[in-house]
Amino acid sequence: MENIKRTEIATLGEFGLIKHLTRDIRHKNPSTHKGIGDDAAVLQYDHKQVLVTTDLLLEGIHFDLTYVPLKHLGYKSAVVNFSDIYAMNGQPKQLTLSLGISKRFSVEDLEEFYAGLQLACDVYGVDLVGGDTSASLTGLAISITCIGEGDTGKIVYRDGAKENDLICVSGDFGAAYMGLQLLEREKKVFTGDKDFQPAFEGREYLLERQLKPEARKDIIAELARHNILPTAMMDVSDGLSSELLHICDQSHTGCRIYEDRIPVDYQTAAMAEEFNMNLITAALNGGEDYELLFTVPLAAHDEVITIPGVRVIGHITSPALGACMITRDGAEIALKAQGWNSLSEENDHPQ
Amino acid sequence: MENIKRTEIATLGEFGLIKHLTRDIRHKNPSTHKGIGDDAAVLQYDHKQVLVTTDLLLEGIHFDLTYVPLKHLGYKSAVVNFSDIYAMNGQPKQLTLSLGISKRFSVEDLEEFYAGLQLACDVYGVDLVGGDTSASLTGLAISITCIGEGDTGKIVYRDGAKENDLICVSGDFGAAYMGLQLLEREKKVFTGDKDFQPAFEGREYLLERQLKPEARKDIIAELARHNILPTAMMDVSDGLSSELLHICDQSHTGCRIYEDRIPVDYQTAAMAEEFNMNLITAALNGGEDYELLFTVPLAAHDEVITIPGVRVIGHITSPALGACMITRDGAEIALKAQGWNSLSEENDHPQ
């Protein structure tokens, strides 16, 4: 027993680990259209394609209940799953929820969580179809599976980007990350003083992006209205840089994005300055933006720029050119996947 | 903040809690055919009905890694989900897996878990289509969602049992529970002695039922071959008594089952005697049998008894008669849902 080989998980990282563990999988069923490797799996039934995505959220790793209200947590838990379905150009339709709960939670606590989840379901037109609760010896565990629908031929994967395609994003980046930094700072400042008032004034947008994100259903509707079918698409949960590298990797391309085109909100910039952080690093690697990152053919340029909230930030290149950002002063720097790797050694604390 | 009402979850119990939290749910989508309240949700796409079931398994609550090998855990985690799909008269087709893992696990540990899961997928013809891993601050968390297919009109729910229907079961009961008692005893006896040999001889069946259960795909195939469509069906995970009460409750009926007809294996009986436990209590309330409990019309009697491993244990009655077991000496005792309620106070330890 003493000689069993032991490889630390951190040596592979999250994506490497999944790749390693699922490398030998061969599909057996005709209804399995696409398996592991995108925002959602794709199943095929007659003329309908069905999308399945799942998320496991654990207390202390994915959320901190000292500053996340349970109603917000319920809302966000649902929305991050809807975001994965929209990222495939589908519509979320059903959701199942499993909860592992410890004794410190009351029925009223769970009512709060469900109220948030149900609100998200109402806003996005999704049905809660399965529930399971059990005890947990430790913290709160939330497992959600979301099922969506798409039209055959209209599902958008990560691997369809072509040379010269335009790289587009919705919304702005880095705000949710800055919101998290702000919440963490106020948590440290708070020392049990009853009259403590956290310094959130003028930072409401950052808090909202962190605590109550929205999925870009509106952008998916606009793309359809403009008859634009993206060649590749993802939602930005682990950080813009990391997701763009996924698209390039799976599409076998390179890319060029431009620092001065990456959309950043004023509050994000002000906060970065206050924290003495590099703004563009936060925008590229912060994560949890839940915006859409997609590529469209060059011919769609004039049409896509008319969609409110969509911005062209660069273009797809041949793979030989690598994945780079052109800085404001014209330097070319390689994009790195500094995304949210919750399995690495240095990140083994709540974040 | 101090006056917020706090209702302990134990006052509602697991089933009561889910009922309470989901009482106001109204479905919005035409593809949502059946939501919460059965072994799986049912979605409708053209001529195909799609089944979705999900399970969250937490270390210390649902399994104890001191005596459950990771490969077995992987196998069992998949099989218990397949069992839910068969219990709807469907065929499992796809599975997604999310894992929350702490640092004490190595890549080799996870390879073991995946090997067991993949073996189950191969045996039952299921595709692993989605994977997600993240860190966990505490124990291992396993979330599995299984998707299955069924023919429209052939899905079997819990609410279809009719008066005079026969109550049938597959296999035998109480063995998995006795296997767990045995493992718990040997864990206590084991005091770190390197040469310790657990006393498992002649108890292999009990261990197998606990550590490597199978789902009754064979029974579903036999029922189809004999053209028998059950009127109601469930799989027995929480205990025969508890599941039968679910069927009676949802079908608005009563039932009579007979103590002397409840199938029990010889090893289960021997172990109950050794532990000085009531055998029939273990068979009725032990749980984790993953056998099928189903009802068929009286007219199917001669056909159903020809299926190997199926046994008629009683019949459905009018609701006024309640749900009872007739003992060997002719006494009538009310069935109770002593099923595995992991949220109750007295069960808040590993089991």
Description:
The structure is a homodimer of 351-residue chains. With 351 residues, the first copy, chain A, is an alpha+beta fold. Chain A folds into 2 domains: 143 residues, 60s Ribosomal Protein L30, Chain: A (2-Layer Sandwich), CATH 3.30.1330; 182 residues, PurM-like C-terminal domain (Phosphoribosyl-aminoimidazole Synthetase, Chain A, domain 2, Alpha-Beta Complex). Chain A has 10 helices and 13 strands. Chain A has a 7-stranded mixed sheet with strand order 8-10-7-11-9-12-13, sandwiched between helices. The first copy, chain A, has a 6-stranded mixed sheet with strand order 1-2-3-6-4-5, covered by helices on one side. The radius of gyration of chain A is 21 Å and the shape is globular. The C terminus of chain A is likely disordered. At the A-B interface, α1, β2, β3, β4 and α3 of A face α1, β2, β3, β4 and α3 of B.
Summary keywords:
alpha+beta, thiamine-phosphate kinase activity (chains A, B), 31% helix, transferase (chains A, B), disordered C terminus, 7-stranded mixed beta sheet, Phosphoribosyl-aminoimidazole Synthetase, Chain A, domain 2, 60s Ribosomal Protein L30, Chain: A, homodimer, 6-stranded mixed beta sheet, magnesium (chains A, B), magnesium ion binding (chains A, B)
